[in-house]
């Protein structure tokens, strides 16, 4: 016996009429059935849906092709960006770049991430105006140009413009184009599919952390950059040809800056989780190779530790996705963040000076980067699938600050000797704990919403525990087609 409950709706999150989808419904007050649930009537009756074209949509199918293409894109964007840890260690010790300083090199690495986030509103606008594939190809070209430019760099400002700004622009266009596509193809396996796609950055970081170190040693810095440029251009360009979105089918709202989202405290908690978590994650990614060498290990051992860190992300993210679909997306994101903080305090600080201990800490890399496999599914929990592109556009914009200054803070806290990174390690752990508190408060908000719906915590939705997973779909209550966000309770609940 299936029944539906909806909570009282809250303030309207509106957009221009032409920019918002018109959701399919039978009357003004009837709730919209969840994907996979039949409408009223016999088993043969047509399925009522919450977006156009859903009746013909089957979970998976071409969606797995999309997952594979996004996995490759992540490997050749974020994975390549992870190899900056190897470049940073080389820059700090080679003296090959004129006018350089540790803080200057830190800014290069930070810019590659912060620019990618800063450009997200522009990329979001381009997606709505020109389409996903065209927007992604802009990023493909910019990323290749950045590596070619970096191969001729002799001064710090050359690196800032090429490996920092230009690469960040390319990364931003590619990332923004693909980050919201995978969730459109899945419902029950949304977290797992998204995690499989994001694990590409881990496997890419693994491969290119080892390959970059080998190429620099055998071919030199310039040719290492040129080979990476060719690989990124070919692979990402091919992926742009096979990637397909469902923006029209789901009625995705691509508003570059949906300021009404800031009126809601739960959205600020969502941002806080990412803000503090990204501060820690950037520090670990960019510092682990240099940390290894600062405590007496070789450059090869440092790159191996970075490679294992990325391997753990590649293997761990699909497992995180599976756990999220079963145990709750907010639950798993919170627990993973807490584990990352405890690992920084008790493994990196106390065991990191010994190489086996450092390797064990590197194996917890899947939790260190918990934000990436969880951000889109958790975001859908907070704002709903249709507002997700607009929410993520703001999300990345806010995260520019931690992305820019995380490694700068780390190198400022670094001292000398075998305990050079002690303050850095403590800061990293503290930021993970702050991130954990943010998402745990978000979980409390979620539970409060469920209590408002009159649920008892033992009920399930789509086969998942209500306490952590609930399939939100914005519903309409006016024939005008104005979109109301889930965050105020316009939620369709399927009781099992």
UniProtKB/TrEMBL annotation:
<feature type="transmembrane region" description="Helical">
    <location>
        <begin position="332"/>
        <end position="352"/>
    </location>
</feature>
<feature type="region of interest" description="Disordered">
    <location>
        <begin position="1"/>
        <end position="52"/>
    </location>
</feature>
<feature type="transmembrane region" description="Helical">
    <location>
        <begin position="134"/>
        <end position="153"/>
    </location>
</feature>
<feature type="transmembrane region" description="Helical">
    <location>
        <begin position="104"/>
        <end position="127"/>
    </location>
</feature>
<keyword id="KW-1133">Transmembrane helix</keyword>
<dbReference type="InterPro" id="IPR036259">
    <property type="entry name" value="MFS_trans_sf"/>
</dbReference>
<feature type="transmembrane region" description="Helical">
    <location>
        <begin position="424"/>
        <end position="442"/>
    </location>
</feature>
<feature type="transmembrane region" description="Helical">
    <location>
        <begin position="265"/>
        <end position="288"/>
    </location>
</feature>
<feature type="transmembrane region" description="Helical">
    <location>
        <begin position="358"/>
        <end position="380"/>
    </location>
</feature>
<feature type="transmembrane region" description="Helical">
    <location>
        <begin position="223"/>
        <end position="244"/>
    </location>
</feature>
<feature type="transmembrane region" description="Helical">
    <location>
        <begin position="192"/>
        <end position="211"/>
    </location>
</feature>
<comment type="similarity">
    <text>Belongs to the major facilitator superfamily. Monocarboxylate porter (TC 2.A.1.13) family.</text>
</comment>
<keyword id="KW-0812">Transmembrane</keyword>
<keyword id="KW-0472">Membrane</keyword>
<feature type="transmembrane region" description="Helical">
    <location>
        <begin position="392"/>
        <end position="412"/>
    </location>
</feature>
<dbReference type="GO" id="GO:0022857">
    <property type="term" value="F:transmembrane transporter activity"/>
</dbReference>
<dbReference type="InterPro" id="IPR050327">
    <property type="entry name" value="Proton-linked_MCT"/>
</dbReference>
<dbReference type="InterPro" id="IPR011701">
    <property type="entry name" value="MFS"/>
</dbReference>
<protein>
    <submittedName>
        <fullName>Major facilitator superfamily domain-containing protein</fullName>
    </submittedName>
</protein>
<feature type="transmembrane region" description="Helical">
    <location>
        <begin position="64"/>
        <end position="92"/>
    </location>
</feature>
<dbReference type="Pfam" id="PF07690">
    <property type="entry name" value="MFS_1"/>
</dbReference>
<feature type="transmembrane region" description="Helical">
    <location>
        <begin position="159"/>
        <end position="180"/>
    </location>
</feature>
<dbReference type="GO" id="GO:0016020">
    <property type="term" value="C:membrane"/>
</dbReference>
């Amino acid at each position: 016996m299936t029944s539906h409950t909806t909570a009282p709706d809250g303030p309207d999150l509106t957009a221009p009429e032409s920019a918002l989808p018109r959701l399919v419904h039978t009357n003004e007050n009837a709730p919209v059935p969840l994907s996979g649930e039949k409408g009223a009537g016999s088993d043969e009756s047509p399925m009522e849906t919450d977006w156009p074209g859903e009746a013909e949509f089957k979970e998976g199918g071409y969606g797995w092709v999309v997952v594979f293409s996004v996995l490759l894109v992540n490997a050749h964007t974020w994975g390549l960006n992870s190899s900056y840890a190897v470049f940073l260690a080389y820059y700090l010790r080679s003296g090959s770049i004129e006018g350089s300083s540790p803080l200057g090199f830190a800014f290069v690495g930070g810019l590659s991430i912060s620019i990618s986030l800063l450009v997200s509103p522009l990329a979001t606008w381009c997606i709505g105006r020109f389409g996903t594939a065209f927007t992604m190809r802009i990023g493909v070209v910019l990323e290749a140009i950045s590596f070619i430019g970096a191969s001729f760099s002799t001064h710090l400002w050359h690196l800032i413009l090429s490996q920092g700004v230009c690469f960040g622009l390319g990364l931003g266009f590619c990332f923004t184009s693909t980050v919201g596509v995978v969730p459109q193809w899945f419902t029950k396996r949304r977290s797992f599919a998204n995690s499989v796609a994001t694990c590409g950055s881990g496997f890419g970081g693994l491969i290119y952390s080892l390959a970059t170190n080998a190429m620099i040693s055998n071919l030199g810095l310039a040719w290492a950059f040129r080979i990476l440029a060719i690989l990124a251009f070919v692979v990402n360009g091919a992926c742009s040809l096979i990637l397909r979105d469902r923006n029209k089918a789901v009625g995705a709202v691509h508003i570059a800056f949906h300021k009404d989202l800031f009126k809601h405290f739960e959205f600020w908690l969502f941002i806080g989780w990412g803000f503090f978590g990204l501060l820690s994650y950037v520090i670990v990614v960019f510092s682990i190779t240099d940390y290894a060498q600062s405590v007496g290990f070789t450059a090869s051992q440092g790159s191996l530790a970075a490679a294992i860190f990325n391997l753990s992300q590649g293997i761990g993210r699909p497992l995180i996705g599976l756990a999220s679909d079963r145990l709750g997306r907010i639950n798993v994101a919170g627990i993973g963040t807490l584990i990352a903080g405890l690992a920084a305090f008790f493994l990196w600080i106390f065991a990191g000076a010994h190489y086996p201990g450092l390797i064990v800490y590197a194996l917890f890399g899947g939790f260190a980067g918990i934000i990436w496999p969880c951000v889109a599914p958790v975001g859908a929990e907070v704002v709903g699938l249709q507002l997700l592109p607009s929410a993520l556009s703001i999300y990345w914009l806010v995260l520019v600050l931690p992305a820019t200054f995380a490694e700068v803070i780390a190198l400022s806290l670094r001292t000398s000797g075998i305990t050079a990174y002690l303050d850095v390690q403590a800061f990293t752990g503290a930021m993970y704990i702050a991130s954990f508190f943010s998402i745990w408060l978000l979980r409390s908000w979620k539970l409060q919403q469920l209590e408002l719906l009159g649920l008892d915590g033992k009920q399930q939705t789509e086969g998942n525990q209500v306490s952590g997973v609930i399939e939100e779909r914005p519903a309409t209550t006016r024939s005008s087609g104005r979109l109301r966000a889930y965050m105020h309770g316009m939620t369709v609940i399927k009781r099992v």
